[in-house]
Amino acid sequence: METETGEFRDLLETEEQNPLAPQAGTQYQFAASDADVTIYGGKAGGGKSYGLILQPTRHLHLPSFGAVLFRRTYPELTNEGGLWDEAANVYPAYRGVAEVGRMRYKFPSGAKVSFRQMEHERDLTKWDGSQIALIEFDQLEGFTRRQFFYMFSRNRSTCGILPYIRATCNPQPNWLAEFLEWWIDQKTGYARDDRANLKRWFCIVGDEVKWGDTREELERRYAKEGLIPRSCRFIPASLQDNPALLRKDPGYLSNLMALSHVDRERLEKGNWKIRDSDGTEWPAAYFVDIMTTDWPKAFQLSAIAVDPSKGRQDGDPSAILFVGLASGTLWVDADIEHRPAERIIDDGVEMAMRCWPDAFGIESNGFQELLGEEYNRRCRAGSIPPLPMKLINNSVNKQVRIRRIGPYLRNGKIRIRDNPGGRILLEQLSGFPLPQVHDDGPDALEMAFRLMLHELEMTPQLSTRITV
């Protein structure tokens, strides 16, 4: 990874030399970046739009230079305080003349800066044959992946500069979060300070983005394909990086703090993983640092619960969950996958032999009751001591039952073992109860927890209690 952005640095004026120049800090880093693609932002109020407006001013002396600034719709371009208004505060100082009907500025050299919408993917064909030296996307998260990558083919130049792309963004858990995942902490959803402004390289192979730490690495890897790697930087920015806004509008931070939990996590704190308020039960903050590679040596109480499935690959997965109590925390080991019924038996017995739980529960609704005897038969065949079997008849609504886990999540009393099953469980918990997200893991977690509570009631001499 490369950290310097010096190629353009000597072309830039400082704020002291020119009041219109980028502010010191991240806005200056954005202006000085030498990467083919630089994406700036991740929080509200970081001076992102102003950074886009300033970017073309470095090349306005070139007669053939052209830049296009994209927003998804025209109202977003022309709204009060939007890109078009921001341009009016900058480009006249460079003797730019606004051509309102054509939504562009033209400069004495002949250079042009245009403002365009790209609402639909069908709008892409309007740019076939174009050569655009500088392409800029404002609020890139609002564009589709295809819109972004298609315009790479229009990013060409004969005006004397190498063509490049600049973009601003706010966090959204979509394709852009996937593109930037190396720069984002995948546990917390926040940008990683230790990777801010580091340059990486990528190629598009088929429809996949392939990354490397150096250009040479990718050239060697895809020599046969003849692909040309492009460089990329992500520069996180926040309100604190924009002192000019704080001076003009001291109440802006208070406005951000008045947002809903989801919007505040996204716009004030830059959380790329938090979900919209679309019916999820628990906020992303409940899942920060929930994954762990640590594991207690012993448990004061434990249980395994099995939520079986019918074994179809197109159906629900089955979940086998171990939950152990140690130091007032519930430690969870999850095994969640699609598997045939015989493997549900084998994998459940294997986990029981590793963990020796105080209770082993299986949902007894419907056909699942038959699996209880299958577990016993498997143990007898393998000369394994009988499992502490409990059949669980679930009569309470599943969503109501699973919500019982909420207080323990809220108070950080649950830790999930970091393995493939644990990561699936995390996904299911954070997406509960959205219909497109499976809930087998949360269901088994609640059943195991209920088994432990039952064991506590049946064994009064146990000194430890599960408390919120």
Explain what this protein looks like in three dimensions:
With 468 residues, the protein is α/β, with parallel strands linked by helices. It has 2 domains: 239 residues, Rossmann fold, CATH 3.40.50; 172 residues, Nucleotidyltransferase, domain 5 (2-Layer Sandwich). The chain contains 16 helices and 17 strands. It has a 10-stranded mixed beta sheet with strand order 3-4-5-2-6-7-1-10-8-9. Strands 11-17-14-13-12-15-16 form a 7-stranded mixed beta sheet, sandwiched between helices. A hairpin with a 4-residue loop joins strand 3 and strand 4. Helix 1 runs parallel beside helix 2 and helix 11 crosses helix 12. The radius of gyration is 28 Å and the shape is elongated. The N terminus and C terminus are likely disordered.
Tally of separate domains: 2
Class computed from helices, strands and strand pairing: alpha/beta
Task: Report on the biggest sheet.
Answer: 10 strands, mixed
What name does the CATH topology of the largest domain carry? Rossmann fold
CATH top level assignment of the largest domain: Alpha Beta
Overall residue-averaged pLDDT value: 86
For the termini, the CA-CA separation is 45 Å
CATH architecture designation of the largest domain: 3-Layer(aba) Sandwich
What tags apply to this protein structure?
ten-stranded mixed β-sheet, elongated, 468 residues, Rossmann fold, 2 domains, disordered C terminus, single chain, Nucleotidyltransferase, domain 5, alpha/beta
